[in-house]
Amino acid sequence: MSYAVKEMFLTLQGEGVNAGARAVFVRFAGCNLWSGREQDRADAICTFCDTDFVGTDGAGGGKFADADALAEAAETHWGEGSERRFVVLTGGEPMLQADGALIDALHARGFRIAIESNGTLPVHPGIDWVCISPKAGSRVVQRTGDELKLVWPQPGVEPEAIEGWDFAHFLIQPMDSADAEANLQAALALAMARPRWRLSLQAHKLLGLR
């Protein structure tokens, strides 16, 4: 199988439980909840995405012929040393492309693998850290994992209705939009009212990281 990657880069994880960890980000092209084209946003299931995942023209991106080629590129981005290698598969929706061959190839190079998914497709069982971010109007089938990240406020999603899902961590993250301050206050209020939820901020944006 070949892989279409929008961009690949070395950075620090900016949000969630693994915030601050050095990581290679592999951003796959394509999503099943929005085309990525602005003219389609209003009619998409997910209307608030702040990420460009269209095409393969980003830094480090491209079309990779097979799993070994993509894993080798991730290893090159990591640079010297094999200790605590960490790769984050994101998108778009990474489960449209992430398969067993890629998981095996990354593990063979010593990577611990995390994924950031909308949960509408089952996550490969070989992935080491599963972060699911549910979107209103979608059918979430992946209801187990390490981290549930709810972007807030999000009409159509009730936090109490998903607290029974099997996740170790429940995170509430303010939506990055023109109403950022109001969204932050809404997320703070929810975390205070429902102590199962922890506030998660996008530290990479605050720090000017990718």
Question: How would you describe what is shown here?
Answer:
With 210 residues, the chain is an alpha/beta fold. The chain has one domain (3-207): Aldolase class I (TIM Barrel), CATH 3.20.20. The chain contains five helices and nine strands; from the N terminus they run βββαβαβββαβαβα. A nine-stranded mixed beta sheet has the order 3-1-2-4-5-6-7-8-9. α4 links the parallel β8 and β9. The longest helix is centred in the last third of the chain and has 14 residues, at 180-193. The radius of gyration is 17 Å and the shape is globular. The protein starts with a strand and ends with a helix. The model has no long low-confidence stretch (mean pLDDT 96).
Summarize the structure.
By secondary structure, this protein is α/β, with parallel strands linked by helices. It has one domain (3-207): TIM Barrel.
How far is it from the N-terminal to the C-terminal residue, by CA? 28 Å
- The beta-strand count equals 9
- The radius of gyration computed from the alpha-carbon positions, rounded to a whole number of angstroms, is 17 Å
The CATH C-level name is Alpha Beta
CATH topology: TIM Barrel
Looking at CATH, the homologous superfamily is: Aldolase class I
Instruction: Give the biggest beta sheet.
Output: 9 strands, mixed
Work out the helicity level. Answer: 10-25%
Architecture, CATH level 2?
A: Alpha-Beta Barrel
H/E element order:
EEEHEHEEEHEHEH
Instruction: Output the structural class.
Output: alpha/beta
Total discrete domains = 1
Stretches with pLDDT under 50, minimum 5 residues: none
